[in-house]
Amino acid sequence: MPLGEFEQSDWITLHTDLVSVLGDVLVRRRGGCWKLIDDEKSPVGYRYVIEAAGLDGNLYQVEPYGVVMEEFEHLPIEITRMIANAEAFLRVTVIPSEG
User: Fold this and answer.
1) Is-contact 62 49, C-beta < 8 A?
2) Mean pLDDT score of the chain, rounded to an integer?
């Protein structure tokens, strides 16, 4: 179905599916793990993040829900861009320098 014909429930389903795919990629490919962290600003008081060791050995976190929501703001949805953005937050890939 074209994105222009989506109803709210379709967007929720797509968002949830993309979060699942992104999380799976980050866990399997980048050694990440799901974490539950406290967040007073969240309606439920917590949020889920993926935590992984960056190339420098430090631990970094990314919120897959946020990455997917950002992707929705830059249609069309590009899965590779979404994964690359999450990997950049986790610092698990080398980002080419500009210049």
Assistant:
1) yes
2) 92
